[in-house]
Automatic annotation (TrEMBL):
Native organism: Leucothrix pacifica
Listed Gene3D superfamilies: Periplasmic binding protein-like II (3.40.190.10), Winged helix-like DNA-binding domain superfamily/Winged helix DNA-binding domain (1.10.10.10)
Family to which the UniProt record says this protein belongs: Belongs to the LysR transcriptional regulatory family.
PANTHER family: HCA OPERON TRANSCRIPTIONAL ACTIVATOR HCAR, TRANSCRIPTIONAL DUAL REGULATOR HCAR-RELATED
Protein name: LysR family transcriptional regulator
Key words of the record: DNA-binding, Transcription, Transcription regulation
CDD domains named among the record's database cross-references: PBP2_PAO1_like
GO molecular function, one term: DNA binding
Length: 308
């Protein structure tokens, strides 16, 4: 067993007061509890620290005098460390590593970095992109303080703070006959060639939309790349279901795309969240980054509403 900081503080208080009763009042503990703590400390160190005098308090032994000096120094170091940790958590400087779901990153991360550089120039935000499984693993092992992600298949050791709901839509090439509709049902789509965004959990989410109508889609291609999906659709290889709406209808290959809403009774909103480990207390840096993300997504939602 090792001595605790509490026992060391008790030792110094009794040495300063020279009476156990006075030290107990100063420390707001009972006299028996203080006496027991001192006895335990002497047992741990195998050294008598005090000579007890009836009605006259206590005096330090030679060993107690020597150990008192070192104990004071150790407590000063502990206090300095506590101050340093408190300052570290409250300052908006240094590094913070955050995760981002791969399809969300292009929409929000550049603006986050730009805003953070303006508001907190000494804050260095490091980004790790990944799918849901990768982000979850890195939150649980402490590599990430937080992650901008989707709230699918939520883990019991991760806290999810909701930001917004993202509705699925149909992605079609501009020339597709179904582009004449203002909205589409899954019954109109399941016989068409389907290009699936096949990321962990995400693919299951899109397939579950078809399961609720009792049909299986005709999967023509699978890809883990958001832009590969868009280019394949633009090339006329099929349709896709996605959640994140870009501000352009152009694919990388120059093709033009149409984004058409699903019928409202067939949509299942996908929550956009900030995720963090339930046992990790957010630092000041994490709290400020979270606030910036809230602001950016709220502004994006307002702009989208105004456009509609």
């Amino acid at each position: 067993m090792k001595a605790s900081l509490k026992q060391l503080r008790y030792f110094v208080a009794v040495a300063d007061c020279r009476k156990v009763a006075d030290a107990a009042k100063l420390l707001h503990v009972s006299q028996p509890a203080l006496s027991a703590a001192l006895a335990q400390l002497e047992s741990i160190w195998d050294t008598q620290l005090f000579i007890r005098h009836k009605a006259q308090g206590v005096s330090l032994t030679n060993s107690g005098e020597l150990l008192l000096k070192h104990t004071r120094h150790l407590l000063q170091q502990a206090h300095s460390l506590e101050d340093y940790v408190r300052d570290l958590n409250e300052q908006v400087i240094g590094d913070i590593k955050i995760g981002c779901f791969s399809t969300l990153g292009p929409l929000y991360i550049p603006q986050l970095l730009q805003q953070a550089q303006t508001d907190y120039p000494e804050l260095n935000i490091q980004i790790l992109e990944g799918d849901l499984e990768q982000l979850e693993a890195n939150l649980l092992n402490g590599q990430l303080e937080l992650a901008l992600s989707y709230g699918l298949d939520q883990h019991s050791r991760i806290h999810y703070e909701p930001l917004a709901d993202s509705l699925p839509y149909v992605l079609l090439p501009e020339s597709h006959p179904l582009c004449e509709y203002d909205s589409l049902s899954l019954e109109q789509l399941y016989t068409e060639p389907f290009i699936l965004l096949d990321l962990p959990h995400s693919g299951d989410y899109f397939l579950s939309l078809f399961q609720q109508i009792g049909h299986q889609p005709k999967i023509a291609y699978r890809s883990r790349s958001f832009e590969m999906i868009r280019c394949m659709v633009a090339s006329g290889r099929g349709f896709s279901l996605l959640n994140q709406r870009l501000r352009t209808n152009q694919a990388y290959n120059g093709g033009t795309l149409r984004m058409i809403p699903l019928k409202s009774d067939q949509t299942r909103p996908l929550p956009i969240v900030i995720a963090r480990h339930v046992d990790l207390m957010p630092s000041m840096r994490a709290r400020l980054v979270t606030s910036l993300i809230h602001k950016i997504i709220n502004q994006a939602n307002i702009a989208e509403d105004n456009k509609n």
